[in-house]
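Weekly modeling sync, notes
Attendees: S.R. (lead), two postdocs, one rotation student

Agenda item 3: backlog of single-chain predictions. S.R. asked that every request posted to the team notebook include the full sequence so nobody has to chase files. The rotation student volunteered to paste the first one in as an example of the format we agreed on. Action items at the bottom.

Example entry:
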Amino acid sequence: MPVLAPIVPESEPIEEVIGSVVAAAGLAMLAGAQQWIADGQVLGTPAQKQHCKTGGAYIAQLFELQKATRGEFDFEQTARTFGAMALKKRFNGHGCPAAAGDILIDEVMAAVRKVTVIMQAMDAADEAEPHAPLQS
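Predicted structure, as returned to the notebook:
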């Protein structure tokens, strides 16, 4: 699955790129939840699957940004701070209450933490017992 490009130009500071991707991931999750409600709380509709793919691509992008900036700053705090600013900017300063933004950011960061744990476990397993190459 291709990873979506950041919402802001690459010339922007990395903190703003991170914040923009956090906001986009949170909004994709919210769109998926809204679609689920609109679909009568039936799971697995094509529109819901698209929101999941989009949100997943943003989570993958955040995982890669986290790896790329390891040791430069506190990634989670930066993601939270700049994610909140990006959400506010997307709503022109209003329309997304701070508490709602915090919930979206909490969910995004929880997903990033889960992906990080899974990827670390996979790396550790590969180091302990490398897999044989797939044969065709």
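Discussion: group reviewed the output briefly. Residues 15-124 form one domain.
Action items: rotation student to repeat for the remaining queue; S.R. to check formatting next week.
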